[in-house]
Amino acid sequence: MADEEELFSAVDALLEQAVRDPLPEPAERKRLREAAGLTQDQVAGALQTRREAVGNWEAGRTEPRPPKRAAYARLLEGLAARFPAPGPAGNTSTASAGPTATPARETASRTSAPAAAPAPAAAPRPAATSRPASTSRRPGAKTAARGESTPAAAADPRFAHGPLAVIDVGADRKVVAYCTGGLVLDVPAKSIPALVDWTLQEAKLGQPKLSGPGKDADPLLVLTESALERYGLPTTLTEEERLAGRLPEGHKAIKQLARAEWKLTKRGFGPWARIYRPAKGSERACVQLCIPSWHALDSRHWGTAAQLPPAELARVLGAYASRVMTPRGSTAVTGLELMTALHPPTRASAPHADGTRHSEHNPGSLGKDPVDPAPCEAPDGHPLLADLPRFHIRGPGEKLLEEAYDWARPMTDAECTLRHLVGIDVNMAFAAGANGLIVGLGAPTHVKAPVFDPKMPGSWLVDLSHVDLSRVKVGKDTWADLDAGLLPSPFTPKGERPDGPAWYATPTVAYAVELGYDVAPIEAYVRYDNGRYLDAWYQRLRDAYLATMADLGVDADLAPADFLAAMDGYQERDPQLATVVSAIKATVKGGLGKLRERPRGEGWRPGEPWRALARPTWRPDIRAAVISRTRINLHRKIVKHAAFTGQYPVAILSDCVVYAANGESPLDFLPYRDGKPLPGGFKLGVNPGLVKHEGTQTVLWGEGVREQFNAPELNLARYIKDGTVTDADNGE
């Protein structure tokens, strides 16, 4: 223990350091950086630290430590000399004021979305904070609440007012547009066609393209109920219209659009309508509508966003748009559209002798034409399977079945003597599974008796029944003896050991080799044209997730105990940003699910094509590869954990794993030593692929619900979060 003199000496040293390297207030740090046109990445690079650390310094969540503090102080001092703070009258020499709106169309004041309070400290347990009510800002102000983009941030003057606007009618019957950053614009349009014209000609809404050969995002208008009434649209759809997903063709608004020579896409005037005129050259004329009261914002993913006041809804959707992309429909649709936006199917060719160019395939993309899957990859009812007998059920030797885990087992006597069941959940598990994954870009090639290549994406018919989990490799030359009866098989979603040849995606077969066993595929469908198609998609969604979690006080560099404390109640600190987190997660899962979209009504019958098959992004093989790798990543950690600790999971559901332990926290069974996790095992943290605490219940609870439903293998991972079991496990 340090004596009193040592403690006071240490405090004096800190005080001396603070005097020697004084820092301006957090908001001023950010202002100075932005005034100089510097990014957080550039500052982080100069100071040899992480971008998240710079963000934390600017938000006031953490302070830099020596020697970085002195360097950071010097940088800010130099910037302050060049870009002094605004004077009392608002005069300033900064270059960061940004563009201003057209005076005739901008209101005299800018109403902000509720400003978020500074994020609380990460430990020991952050308390929930409240946000002040909306405030007025001086004309020309370009500041924004945490977690949203500002108009000034739009480098492209065409989109000076951000990606979207929420259209509402005030008490004075004036139509206004709530944009991101607290900007409010007057809307003079008297009809839907006029509103579209105003959006494209005056509103300065939209978003720059995400990739060189891509297209700018179309402006998004979100119509509140009062706006719907103002423009002659119903505030809710009838049951018939809801089932059809659109207004009838004879509706007044649709006739107005037709007279003005505007068109609707095939999905018509529904919750996510697209109004356009055919492109002339590179010029696009298209506006997207989002109508929350028609259930455009699924409450499973967007929570109560549809009920938010206009300014707050603009903040939520604006944060999502700036970090992911402007929504194009449901989170699933947007997830798929993000893939295409990052890898457009075509690009402009090199100029010909006469200077002209033509459209050509964009390398690394999925192209503009759909490809058929291999027969084993085709879901039931696909046209490739039209010749199968009507009631034929395909087995593992005919059908690729790569799905997430749904596995559980009875607890052992030793586990029943422990007190708790603790669930841990992998953050953004399927996004992490996509990271660095090599997937096919084109059509498959059928190969007989192939030699397995772990770098070749494809589907392989191979017998893995000989892989014995009682003895496996857990390192290059290290074997481990395990209790195979307490482990799920890595090769099947239900954890059952295969009993013969079956179809598997490349990551599954590669894992069998990694465990120390030879494989001899019988046949395969491989894709020689391949690449890391999902890398940019993963990185975009990862950065969106981490930035939003950091705004909620959960940083990427927290120690394990601090991370658990920061995660406790993080949604309550800013429910709006918590909604953005939920939407980002749904974008990952939904986007991957769309790669194998099934028929959606449409009068479809088995053996007939359905609409999704016409997309180049209908790729069940890519979905299977991501799920395969995600499941294998989880099993690898489980094996490492079992080999080191002797502990085995009790239940697994997708990316949630439940262990029996004597304590209530993951730290009561995860083998941390000196703050470092087991190499290759589970690690607590917010990054995709790391784990968080999902929930804790008692062992008595687990045994009780299994007895109640007479189901010894009831999957407790499904209910570990809050302990509520409403019905027997039905696998949904």
* Amino- and carboxy-terminal Cα gap: 56 Å
Percent range for β-strand residues: 5-15%
- In terms of structural class, how would the helical and strand content be classed? alpha+beta
Give the number of helices.
21
Biggest sheet character = 7 strands, mixed
Strand order of the largest sheet: 5-4-3-6-9-8-7
**What Rg is obtained from the alpha carbons, in whole angstroms?**
28 Å
Low-confidence stretches: 88-122, 124-145, 149-154, 728-732
Overall mean confidence score, pLDDT: 87
* Strands, count: 24
Helix content class: 25-40%
Shape: globular
What does this molecule look like?
The chain is of the alpha+beta class. Helices cover 30% and strands 14% of the residues. It has 21 helices and 24 strands. It has a seven-stranded mixed beta sheet with strand order 5-4-3-6-9-8-7. Strands 12-22-23-13-24 form a five-stranded antiparallel beta sheet. Helix 3 (40-47) packs across helix 4 (51-59), helix 15 (506-514) packs parallel to helix 20 (620-645) and helix 16 (535-551) packs antiparallel against helix 19. The chain starts with a helix and ends in a 24-residue tail after the last helix.
Summarize the structure.
The chain is of the alpha+beta class. It has 21 helices and 24 strands. The two termini are 56 Å apart.
